[in-house]
């Protein structure tokens, strides 16, 4: 039987940040579209503008449905662009713990190596202050958990109900 743990949705201000970014990209695309320029340059410019608009729109739509699913065999993280599964044998379920950056500042992200960093959304691969890499899906710093893995990286998540998973 699968257990589903919902990730904390982005706050309203985080969503407005995404909407502002998308609106800015659409505005730039509109300027390019209506600007007098040679047709090949216009096509090339639009080809560069449309994919980011679609990608950020999809992330905004999907991030509020992100979840962690644990079944008898696997741990599956269902997040936009970066979803993955691990066998439970590679996850230390007994060591899942709350993460508080006030008491564990060395586990704060220092550098985004492959991911999305927006106000109130850190999604993807990060290098931590202690030089360790980590996968993060964070929308709320007050609801963080850390899931240790046997792959030399932890998974750091913001869950709606972190207490449902910690200590299981």
Please provide a brief summary of the model:
With 168 residues, the protein is of the alpha+beta class.
Compile the SSE list and pairings.
Layout lengths: L2 E4 L5 H23 L4 H24 L4 E4 L3 E5 L5 E4 L9 E2 L10 E10 L2 E8 L4 E6 L5 E4 L7 E4 L10
Parallel strand pairs: 8-10
Antiparallel strand pairs: 1-2, 2-3, 3-4, 5-9, 6-7, 7-8, 9-10
Helix pairs in contact: 1-2
Tags for this entry?
168 residues, alpha+beta, 6-stranded mixed sheet, 4-stranded antiparallel sheet, 28% helix, 30% strand, elongated
Overview of this protein structure:
The protein has 168 residues and is α+β, with helices and mostly antiparallel strands. Helices cover 28% and strands 30% of the residues. The chain is built from two helices and ten strands. A six-stranded mixed beta sheet has the order 5-9-10-8-7-6. Strands 1-2-3-4 form a four-stranded antiparallel beta sheet, with no helix packed on it. The model has no long low-confidence stretch (mean pLDDT 94).
Spatial separation of the terminal alpha carbons: 15 Å
Q: Strands of the biggest beta sheet: in what spatial order?
A: 5-9-10-8-7-6
Topology, number of strands: 10
Question: Can you summarize the main beta sheet?
Answer: 6 strands, mixed
- State the shape: elongated
Task: Give the helices and strands as they follow along the chain.
Answer: EHHEEEEEEEEE
């Amino acid at each position: 039987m699968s257990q589903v743990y919902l990730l904390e949705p982005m706050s309203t201000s985080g969503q407005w940040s995404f909407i502002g970014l998308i609106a800015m990209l659409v505005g730039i695309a509109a300027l390019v579209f209506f600007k007098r320029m040679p047709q090949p340059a216009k096509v090339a410019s639009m080809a560069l503008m449309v994919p980011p608009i679609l990608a950020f729109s999809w992330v905004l739509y999907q991030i509020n449905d992100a979840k962690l699913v644990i079944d008898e065999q696997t741990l599956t993280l269902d997040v936009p662009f970066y979803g993955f599964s691990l066998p439970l044998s590679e996850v230390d379920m007994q060591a899942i713990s709350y993460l508080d950056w006030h008491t564990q500042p060395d586990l704060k992200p220092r550098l985004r190596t492959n991911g999305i960093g927006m106000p109130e959304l850190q999604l993807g691969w990060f290098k931590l202050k202690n030089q360790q890499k980590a996968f993060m899906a964070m929308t709320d710093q007050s609801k963080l958990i850390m899931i240790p893995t046997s792959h030399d990286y932890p998974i750091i998540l913001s869950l709606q109900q972190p207490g449902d998973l910690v200590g299981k």
